[in-house]
Amino acid sequence: EVQLVESGGGLVTPGGSVRLSCAASGFTFSSGWMRWVRQAPGKGLEWVGRIISKTHGGTIDYAAPAKGRFTISRDDSENTLYLQMNSLKTEDTAVYYCTTSYSGDGRDHWGQGTLVTVSS
Amino acid sequence: DIQMTQSPSSLSASVGDRVTITCQASQDISNYLNWYQQKPGKAPKLLIYDAFNLETGVPSRFSGSRSGTDFTFTISSLQPEDIATYYCLQYNNLPNTFGQGTKLEIK
Fold first, then answer.
1. Distance (Å, rounded) from C-alpha B72 to C-alpha B65?
2. A58-91: pLDDT as tens digits
3. How far lies A105's CA from each of A36, A87, B25, B28, B93, in Å?
4. How far is CA A88 from CA A39, A53, A59, A78, A91, in A?
């Protein structure tokens, strides 16, 4: 069974940093195309960025609000996905989900999410 | 960026009703569209992938279809447990983009 468990969320002051982790199991992590999606309180879903498998080039792409402030990385030896978030703004307050696709079609799996609150 | 225009934003229907939600893409996305169900406090759950395909374990009353850049999600007979917010997602282009969501309520 695919499991994705996010951690690292919490209260952060504006301008601060936080690193989220997503521990994966139940599939070959190194083959997974991994994505971060966020959801501000009471709002819709927003794609943050993705990292594809190293065998497909390991390309990393970001949504405009994340470019230059967020960094996505992966450790295939630890089956873990990361999201380093710097220069945080109040509008970054959201539940952050990691998702994976590895079957070559549109099927994906989601973690339970971790809440990041940016507030003074 | 591809815009996904989802409608309606909210919907009230009775148990047993046929319910339809649409997403219109601003350009061709082929069949690269998923439909998700999200209940309060929970992660989105995949229902339909690649526009038409029912995810394993999802009841057959859920279905998806496509006509050009218009995508339709249908619940053939609404059940009380279907109360949720539904989202479409296009993954043909980066950035991937979601529809605004449809909040479904029971009348």
1. 5
2. 999 999 999 999 999 999 999 999 999 999 999 9
3. 18, 35, 19, 18, 15
4. 15, 27, 24, 27, 8
Assess A33–B contact: CB distance below 8 Å, yes or no.
no
- pLDDT value of position B55: 97
Q: How far apart are CA B104 and CA B85, in angstroms?
A: 6
Alpha carbons A39 and A9: distance in angstroms, whole number: 13
Contact A45 B89 (CB under 8 A): yes
A97/B100 Cβ within 8 A: no
Out of B43, B87, B91, the one facing A106 most closely (by C-beta) is B91
The predicted structure's pLDDT at residue A39: 98
Residue with tokens 């395909």: B53
| Contact between chains at B43 and A35 (C-beta distance less than 8 A) | no
**Cβ neighbours of A35 in B, within 8 Å:** 96
Strands laid side by side in the B4-7 sheet: B4-7, B19-25, B70-75, B62-67
End-to-end CA distance of chain A: 40
| pLDDT tens column, A6-36 | 999 999 999 999 999 999 999 999 999 999 9
pLDDT digits (tens, 9 = 90+) for B17-37: 999 999 999 999 999 999 999
Please judge whether A47 and B97 are an interchain contact, meaning their C-beta atoms are less than 8 angstroms apart.
Answer: yes
Cα–Cα distance measured from residue B2 to residue B28, given in angstroms and rounded to the nearest whole number: 9
Is residue A30 within 8 angstroms of chain B, CB to CB? no
